Amino acid sequence: MTLPLDVPTAINQRRSIKNFTTDPIAPELLKTLVELTVAAPSSFNIQDWRIILVQDEAQKAALAEAAWGQKQIIQAPVTFVFAADAAAGGGDLTPIYEQALSTGAWSEGTVKYFKQAIPGFQKDLGEKTREYAIKDAMIAATHLVLAA
Per-residue confidence at 90, pLDDT binned at 50, 70, 90? Predict the structure, then answer.
């Protein structure tokens, strides 16, 4: 078993890999990778992205075709797909407020402020909500790469 790398070493040694073994990835490791990915910061912690883990052979083949025939999608035991969700900030944000309070990330005063600020901020973004969602999805994907 190889030891985990520290973050600077992982960044310096990172390489784009185009060939993969088909060895399965342990469910516990996938769970850990997802947990570390969703810990990524996002605008107001809205997490305006979704992760889809593609493991089914037919779905991997369809995804590979949609990705201009990239064979590594078929070879890899799992592919993480990140989708930006520009509408995420327009819904009920109560779970975000509750989680932030329960973890101590935000105080009651911060939650009160954000309950007023977030809807206005999202409305003022207009078409840029898509850009924020893409940016946040890219940050989450970077967390996945570092975690992996």
Answer: confident
Residue 121 has pLDDT above 70, yes or no: yes
CB atoms < 10 A from the CB of 82, how many?
17
Cross-strand partners of 80: 53
User: What b/e string do you get for 51-78 counting C-beta neighbours within 10 Å, with b at 16 or more?
Assistant: beebeeeeebeebbeeeeeeeebbbbee
d(CA 77, CA 148): 14
Q: What is the pTM of this model?
A: 0.85
**Contact in structure between 90 and 122 (CB atoms under 8 Å):** yes
Distances (CA, A) of 37 to 51, 76, 141, 146: 9, 19, 7, 9
Average pLDDT on 81-86 reads 95
Residue 12 has pLDDT above 70, yes or no: yes
Show the tokens assigned to 84: 């930006």
